[in-house]
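step 4 of 6: structure.
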Amino acid sequence: MAATATPIPGATTPAVEVRGLVNRFGRQVVHDKLDMTVERGEVFGIVGGSGTGKSVLLRTILGLQAPRAGSVLLGGREITGLGHAELRAVKAGYGVTFQQGALFSSLTVLQNVQLPMIEQLRLPARDLDELALLKIRMVGLDAGAAHKFPSQLSGGMVKRAALARALALDPPLLFLDEPTSGLDPISAAAFDELVMYLHGELKLTIVMITHDLDTIYRTCTRVGVLVNRHMVSDTLAGIVSHPEPWIHAYFMGERARERSVRHGT
Amino acid sequence: MYCAAQRQGEELRLALQGEWRLAGLVAARSELAAFPLAGVRQLVVDAGQARLDVSAAWLLRDFLAGAAAQGIAARFEGESPPALALVEKTLAGVMPPPDPDIPPMAQRLDAAAAVEGLGRKAVQAWHLVSDGLDFIGRTASSAVLAARSLRRWRPTSIARHVFDTGVTAIPIVALIAFLISVILAYMGAQQLRKFGADIFVVDLVTVGVLRELGVLLTAIIVAGRSGSAFAAEIGAMCLNEEVDALSAIGVNPIEVLVLPRIIGLVIALPLLTVFSDLVGLAGGGLLCHWLLGMPLVQYSNRVIESIASTTFWVGLIKAPVFAVLIALSGTWCGMRVRGSSRDLGAQTTLAVVQSIFFVILADALFAVLFMEMDI
């Protein structure tokens, strides 16, 4: 069921490339010369135990936090050490959803989706309304939800609204932080389906942090596991048979076995 | 250049080229709008050389729909852009009716609506009052229940609030008390000197600071500092569902969050008031010494003469009352935070305004009461 990677012709540079990344807080080394490559058109899952620095890695890639050493390239462009204005342009090139949705609570869903467009571009009001509504409907919300405030939405709707905001500028690259956490299995499956639908239609490159084995099996073309301050990345089939104990426990543990029982494999 | 056009009789061929992105939406639209469509019956779009994102596809769809309205048929040569299919699919979903809960943007001035609005406001005001009374009642009953066992008084929490609201406020309270008594003494000296009654400046400062200004200004500063802090702390906990979590564990949130703050402030505010009285008297003494050349010994003798047995206590007795009012306003506003961070800001503001208002109102009532009692 996992999608196949669809490389975009003419694009030779990887969508995301991390080289020799070092992150350190005081004496605690989170990443030590970590390498990671995500090709265009891939759905790349980042997995790791608590405290292995998944969120730190994501924040570094997004340019929200400067690494101690190493480089991060988005679409072949180095983003570490960029100035404010350049970083702003880089940020228009990707969309992000955060774990709790991070919708602005004083704005309606429609205004949340419009905010990136208003900040980055100059568009007429009618375009803003129609485009934002298009994005909201694209993620499977109805127009009635557009005028609601985030506090009036259910958990699944918040995730979808956050996705609509991430898609506001039509970015070719999407980062999802725990997209299905806190959702019931049915909503989670529906959300995965939505992500795959958009991935198929828009040829997006997607990088997601997730703990949900179902989501990994359903969506990811490749998986990167954070162990011992490094990243081990491989295709799904390759990673499952990796000898590293944590990876083995993660994919072959009790929960994973239950999953294969359920799926009859 | 987003597209090249070629006219052949009644047929217009549009060859789209390059990157069609949201950022270039306005430019692309004006380019499309520039093509004369008069006399065109057939539109042929070749999108093979262009890459369209969703927003650009929406623009193209909009353009083609506009052309169709003028009776121009359109077809694609080669493949139609994939993003266009997504837009079509999205928009083909049944358009649900707009949410009935959203009021229309512009409302007509309507007598019935005005009366209805007035009624709504009145009911809301009544709800606010009854909610406040309800909160006071629940706090009182929680206090009675908690009073039965010493363990539920939460001394650690109370100590923390005494420190936060009292000890850390000492510098600002001292500064304000000093400055106010200096101002009072200076203004008083200017007026009283005309009558040669310089010595009564001391009475003015002593009675003014001890009876009114010391406690009132301290209460207003504490209302600004701690009333807002109470509302913001508890409000953030409400937003984070921590208050619900407390209730779910079986802990009464009022007992844990509200009572320690009230008790802490009831302890801290009288102590701050005594401190502020002392600094105020000292400030008045220094000014009398510098400005009127009055020896400090004479000043202190005069202070002791001018104090009636009640003067100090009349001021101090108000402090615990003000403390309860400030703590109740702050915690109540915090508990009322619902939903959004904007509400948190509104309730924090309300907490400060409300507690200062209640403090001054209570001070006025005390003034009337003491006058009736001839104190």
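step 5 of 6: annotate
 - The longest strand of chain A covers residues 28-38.
 - The CA atoms of residues 18 and 72 of chain A lie 5 Å apart.
step 6 of 6: archive
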